[in-house]
Amino acid sequence: MDTARIASDHGLPGHLVDFVAAMRRHGVAVGPGETVDAARVLGALDLLHREHLREGLAAALLRRSGQRQVFDTLFELYFPAALGAGVGEVEVPRVGDEDGDAPDGPVDIDALRDVLADLLRDGDTDALAELARAVVDALGTSGAAGTAVRGAGGQPSWSAYQALRMLSPETLLARIMDDLRTGEEEGNPFADEVRRREIRDRIAAFRKMITDEVRRRTAEARGREQVARTAVPKQAEQVEFLSAHAEQLTALRRTVHPLARRLASRLAVRRKHAKRGTLDMRRTLRRSMSTGGVPMRPAYRTRRPGRPELVVLCDVSGSVAGFSHFTLLLVQALREQFSKVRVFAFVERADEVTHLFSPGAELSGVMQRVLREAELVAFDGHSDYGSALGGFAEHWGEAITSKTSLLVLGDARTNYRDPNLTVLRRLVGAARHAHWLNPEPRRQWGSGDSAALRYADVIPMHECRTAAQLADVVEALLPV
């Protein structure tokens, strides 16, 4: 383990500061207090016990859920398990090297797979980590003809895919299972399944070891920051709605309730500091008569904030559906902040779907139900904001009153159809407040078929590409 060497070579305090700075760049809020705690951890722990160091720093630096994956990735880059090829007892077998005659010969893949199968069967984690380093050093830079592949500047170009393709560890499962059954009179199906899952987990862990090792070697050659830009995963709140894949959207949906709790807590603080209303001049002057005209005890009007009604009009077509779904889940979690919530979905035409978001409703597959049960399509299934706004105003226009906050969700891409600004202007004029949340980057507003800039002349439009941006906007819009 070379963490101690890294500390002595680069200066431990400076190295910790660089590590903390990298965490901040990737969205993990680390303050001076957490940094001081981390420095104390470094002073108290033995740097040779790397896992103790990892957990100690995580306890000192992390304050919120969802940050651990970013921390672990950066920890591997800033506190690597080895430098260069490292030193270990596990060696890669070579063709013709039975007697030490060919230490630099070609890798004996079959013998290497035998070694890997034995280690996976025994579950020797330390030996597997050493083997991963040796495999990357021997196979990770070999081209098809056995020559090293070089990247820019003559640096080695490491490849986890290449090493894993040549080893194919997943194909060892049946062989390892047969070895484990040796000596048993008859197989136990339950025990077999438990072993099978355990071996699969070990294979997956070994694949990750290879990937981490390639990332470490690449970081040594090209710099940690360059690797971190692509290797460090985004936190769920930093993932852009329109580019998120299914797994990221699932993780994003898990952040809804913690995010709603934080917003509700902030709102409670704002309300606490805003209990008093504006100065009541008449009562203040009346009180001052007892103190010779000096207003010693100012009087304030009593604030009666009340909870407004909320109407949500959301585009549920295409990739925008992920953004609309998350926003609706957030509104559902915050619905107690409003006296009444009504939800309308649209593609080409609008339809009310409030009943699908009622308290206690199952929301896991709610967007599929919206698309299946609501009447949203008239002709070709492409977004038609003008037609949807017109239909909403015709059938549910009475839902917008002087007590209503109107929230429109969508990218404002009209497929070159009439945006119907007249109807939107009438709805905005009837509402107490009106806002449009747009998941597209501001720089794309008005490009192509986007009517965002035209709509923005009628209604305040906010960029909401990520959950973090959405939280900031929603917090600003919530009633006090």
Low-pLDDT ranges: 142-152
DSSP helical segment count: 20
Secondary structure tally: strands: 8
Give the termini distance in whole angstroms.
Answer: 55 Å
By oligomeric state, this entry counts as: single chain
Query: In CATH's first tier, which class of the largest domain applies?
Result: Alpha Beta
Keyphrases for this structure?
Rossmann fold; two-stranded antiparallel sheet; 8% strand; 20 helices; alpha/beta; globular
Short description:
With 480 residues, the protein is of the alpha/beta class. Helix content is 50%, strand content 8%. It folds into four domains: 3-78, no CATH class; 109-233, no CATH class; 246-269 and 306-477, 3-Layer(aba) Sandwich (Rossmann fold); 275-302, no CATH class.
Ordered list of secondary-structure elements with their pairings:
Layout: H1 3-10, H2 12-25, H3 32-44, H4 50-61, H5 68-78, H6 109-122, H7 125-139, H8 160-167, H9 173-181, H10 189-222, H11 224-231, H12 246-253, H13 256-273, E1 276-279, H14 281-288, E2 300-302, E3 309-315, H15 320-333, E4 340-346, E5 350-352, H16 366-373, H17 385-396, E6 404-409, H18 421-430, E7 433-438, H19 452-456, E8 461-463, H20 467-477
Parallel strand pairs: 3-4, 3-6, 6-7, 7-8
Antiparallel strand pairs: 1-2, 4-5
